[in-house]
Write a structure and sequence with these properties.
Elements: H1 2-8, H2 19-42, H3 48-62, E1 68-69, E2 73-77, H4 91-96, H5 100-126, H6 128-139, H7 142-148, H8 155-170, H9 174-181, H10 191-203, H11 209-234, H12 251-255, H13 262-272, H14 289-296, H15 314-329, H16 336-359, H17 371-382, E3 388-391, E4 404-407, E5 416-420, E6 431-437, E7 440-445
Parallel strand pairs: 3-4, 3-5
Antiparallel strand pairs: 1-2, 5-7, 6-7
Helix pairs in contact: 2-5, 2-6, 5-6, 5-8, 5-15, 6-16, 8-9, 8-15, 10-11
């Protein structure tokens, strides 16, 4: 059995070609992703949840403070919610360009960067034409598009790290694979388990047993330390809020969901469909298990519906598994089979990709300028830097880089309030200034020492 596993995790190539077409394709996607994300944001289709939260987190780092967010919870250091210290690498860039757009551009470039190694490996192993089809299908995969359509998240770093790690692994460079995978433990607390599974695959390869075992142990230990030691130490609540007694959800609700419900089965099928189900031929699909495990084991529907950003980290795994599977199938594609196999697979990949693309969240388009967005821009410009303000979710990320923003629904007394005049959560108070522009109203409230805003922790 071990000999069979060692064979299927053997390197698929020991040389690199296709770098130029892969770089061109990645550049084109970088431009498209960036355009889409920025136009969407400028059309007020981004939100305080989650762009505003991460904007405030990176802003904190750029100012030399621990990451906090008045939008998320002013009493919570964000490292006590999720462990994502890798965000600190954006601080120097944010220092130069202190705006939410910096995060969106960074995510677009990171996603596009992941296209390069996947396309290059595909061109090297299965030919340039079908390699470019695989690369384009990956770039248009619904997991990446949903993430681009849902603001910014820390997993933007995980996508290229996984892409480079897995392509290096498939190319026989286990040491480099570990070097790319190791920073995943700084992206999010659960990704250490993904590193652990990669370590197991490396350990099955002749000559890499020790490296693989160290990697597997290191990844597992990193996740355990993050969940049970580091996060509780930063948390105002003294625990990991998504697990265990006193968490956001009881253990039975968080860990004993129905793994085989129709909705969850739909997610699994949807994940495998872009690869024409060929990915299951590769042992790399084992890397899906840590992320799918906690998602499918949950009863919280937002964790397993095929929306938001959760599926982005699975796309590099699936498409690297697809490339590996195509290589493993080559001995069976001889004679006539070989002549029709490549064009058939390429056409099927392209068709499936375009169908899923048309159904993805990105198919709604990035949005467009309107009277509301123009009025919102004018109102946002009137709010002074350093102020405290209550506003709606869609306006919050346009103010989070230079003010302390609270969502209107939390009813936090602030100096300013900006919202649609007919918002049911708008509660007028004694105000020095009331400005109306279109459907929006901006109020500057009288100072009241009894209602000073709660200062964020970590400042």
């Amino acid at each position: 059995m071990l000999l069979v596993l060692a064979h299927v995790v053997a390197p698929v190539t020991d040389h690199r070609t296709g770098g130029r077409p892969a770089a061109i394709l990645a550049t084109l996607f970088a431009a498209a992703y960036t355009w889409f994300a920025l136009v969407r944001h400028w059309s007020y289709r981004s939100g305080g949840y989650d762009l505003g939260i991460f904007d405030q987190a990176v802003r904190s780092y750029s100012e030399g403070r621990l990451p906090v967010s008045t939008i998320r919870d002013p009493n919570l250091i964000l490292l006590g919610d999720h462990f994502h210290p890798i965000l600190v690498v954006l601080a120097p860039l944010y220092r130069m360009f202190p705006m939410a757009e910096t995060l969106l551009v960074a995510q677009a470039l990171l996603f596009a960067l992941s296209i390069f190694p996947i396309t290059r490996l595909a061109c090297t192993t299965v030919g340039r034409t079908i390699g470019l089809v695989v690369g384009a299908s990956y770039g248009l995969s619904w997991g990446l598009l949903n993430a681009i359509s849902f603001d910014f998240h820390e997993i933007a770093f995980a996508v290229p790290l996984l892409a480079f790690a897995l392509t290096e692994f498939l190319s026989g460079r286990s040491g480099r694979a570990v070097a790319f995978a190791a920073p995943l433990v700084l992206v999010k607390e659960d990704l250490g388990l993904t590193v652990a599974v990669l370590g197991v695959l490396i350990a099955l390869r002749p000559g890499s047993r020790r490296l693989g075992m160290i990697t597997a142990a290191g990844g597992a230990i990193a996740s355990l330390l993050s969940v049970f030691v580091i996060i509780p130490a930063f948390s105002a609540y003294g625990n990991y809020r998504y697990l265990g007694k006193g968490g956001l959800k009881a253990p039975e609700a968080a860990l004993s969901g129905d793994l085989l419900s129709a909705g969850k089965l739909h997610l699994v099928l949807l994940l495998l469909l872009p690869t024409l189900f060929l990915a299951v031929r590769s042992p790399l699909v084992a890397l899906l298990l840590p992320t799918l495990g906690w998602r499918l084991g949950s009863t919280y529907i937002l964790y397993w519906i095929p929306t938001f950003h959760y599926d982005a980290v699975l796309m590099p795994i699936l498409f690297c598994a697809l490339i590996h599977s195509l290589v493993l199938l080559r001995p069976y594609l001889v004679g006539r089979r070989r002549r029709w196999a490549r064009p058939t697979i390429g056409a099927a990949l392209a068709t499936t990709c375009l169908v899923l693309f048309s159904q993805a969240a990105a198919a709604d388009g990035p949005g467009h300028r309107s009277e509301f967005t123009a009025a919102a821009d004018r109102m946002v410009a009137l709010v002074p830097d350093g102020a405290t303000i209550s506003t709606t979710d869609t306006i919050a990320p346009h103010l989070s880089s230079r003010t302390d923003v609270y969502l209107l629904r939390v009813n936090q007394p602030t100096e300013w309030t900006l919202a649609p005049y007919d918002d049911p959560q708008l509660k007028p108070r004694a105000a020095d200034v009331v400005i109306r522009d279109g459907d929006l109203v901006l109020m500057h409230h009288e100072a009241d020492p009894r209602h000073s805003p709660t200062p964020p922790r970590g400042s």
